[in-house]
Amino acid sequence: MSELLSARVAGFLDLHHVMSLATVGPSGPHAVNLFYARDGLALVWVSEAGARHSLELEAERAVAATIAADTADFTAVRGVQMHGRARRVDDPAETVRLRGLLADRYTFLKRLDALPERLRDAVARVSLYRLDPDQVVLIDNARGFGHKETLVLQRS
C-alpha cells in the first residue's frame, strides 16, 4: 500500500509546480509560495538566505507544506499536505545534484545566459533548501468528501 501511495503522491507532485511553505518564527507563522522540484518525496527549492522563511527555518526546522490544484468544484479538490524538517543544503555535490533537478523541471534555469543580468544575478545568489517529510497526506475528494490517505515516513 505505501509503495502505491508513494507513487500516487509523486505523480501528483510532478503535475504541480508551486508549494505553499509554512514556517514559524518570532513574529508568528508565515507562509510563502515557492517553485519546487521533487527528490523522492522530498521537496527542494531555492530562496534568498535573508528571506523571512529562510531565516525562520534556520532557527526552527519544523515546517509544513501544501500543494493543491485550483478548483471551485469541491469534488475535484486534490492536494498534498506534508510536514517535516527543512534545511539549507550546503554540501557542494548535493547542491549540484539538486540544482540539476530544478533545472530539469524549470528549463529556463538551463538558459541562464539568455536571461536578463538582474535575473542571472538573483539565481546566482540564492541558496538551496530541502524539505524531508515525516508525514505526507494525499487528499482526494473524488474518492469521497475529505478522503485522506496518510503516508508516515521513517527517517534514518
UniProtKB/TrEMBL annotation:
<dbReference type="InterPro" id="IPR012349">
    <property type="entry name" value="Split_barrel_FMN-bd"/>
</dbReference>
<protein>
    <recommendedName>
        <fullName>Pyridoxamine 5'-phosphate oxidase N-terminal domain-containing protein</fullName>
    </recommendedName>
</protein>
<feature type="domain" description="Pyridoxamine 5'-phosphate oxidase N-terminal">
    <location>
        <begin position="7"/>
        <end position="107"/>
    </location>
</feature>
<dbReference type="InterPro" id="IPR011576">
    <property type="entry name" value="Pyridox_Oxase_N"/>
</dbReference>
<dbReference type="Pfam" id="PF01243">
    <property type="entry name" value="PNPOx_N"/>
</dbReference>
